[in-house]
Every structure is written in structure tokens, then in C-alpha cells.
Amino acid sequence: MPAFTFEKISPPVRRAPAATTPKKPRGLISQMIERFAERRARRALRASARGDEKPMK
Asked: What is the distance between the alpha carbons of residues 33 and 13, in angstroms, rounded to a whole number?
């Protein structure tokens, strides 16, 4: 029989949900890239609908 034993200490229980951080406004560069990507996607959709799809570089 062991002379002593170790107790398992469980981590503290979280009672409240984690506070959500407010979303930061997107940077100017991110907005510009998003606009270019949207336009490119629209152009690709129109081209595929017409049937004159060009291979991407």
C-alpha cells in the first residue's frame, strides 16, 4: 500500500461565455482586393455562361 497518493486537480470551470471581440473595420487594401476578386468572379461567370471561357494564366 502506498504511503501517499497524488490528487488530480481539475482545471477551473468556465462559468461565463468568452467575451467576443468587436470586429475591426477592414483595411483599405483588403477592401480593394475583395472588390477586384468580386469583379473577376463576375467576369468569369459571364464568360462561362456565354461559352467563351479562356484558360486562366
From this structure: 43
